[in-house]
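Posting for a labmate who doesn't have an account.
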Amino acid sequence: MKSVTLVRSQERLKVLIIASGVAAIVTALVFSWLLSAALSWAPRTEHFLRLVGWLGMGTVWVVQSVLSWMVWRSTTYKITPEAITVQAKSGLLGSAKTMYRYESILSVSVDQSFWGKRRGYGCIKLNVPKLDNDIVLKDVDHPSAQLAELQSRINSRGGSGHALIN
């Protein structure tokens, strides 16, 4: 069997960027409303601070969007014949690569939010008893379909071929 890279959802990235843009606009609107209520006696100062608030929120949104894109782009999930490999950004310029052998996986499940079901993305959760937390493969495109490939790899490894699929 060859290695397969799990496809990450571009729709999830779009939803994240749009949601953060809406949050930035709402924050700027509330900030403007508070300024007009508090500084109605100083219109020049109010206009200046309103402009600074809108520019600041726009800048925060752009920076957050770029950082989200960079993290999304640098995280990959690969299904190899021996294990699942997660390569993710670590720190400012580094990256970390972690392998999870199929024999250590007890169960796998799919988790999709409301928007995830509508847009076709979700998370695949892997339960490894030796670890305290589940391993979460985030923003996977059509996770139920990709779960089938993962299950066939787990079953072909023999050791933990009876992994629970939720």
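Reply:
Got it, the structure tokens are right above this. The two ends are 24 Å apart (CA to CA).
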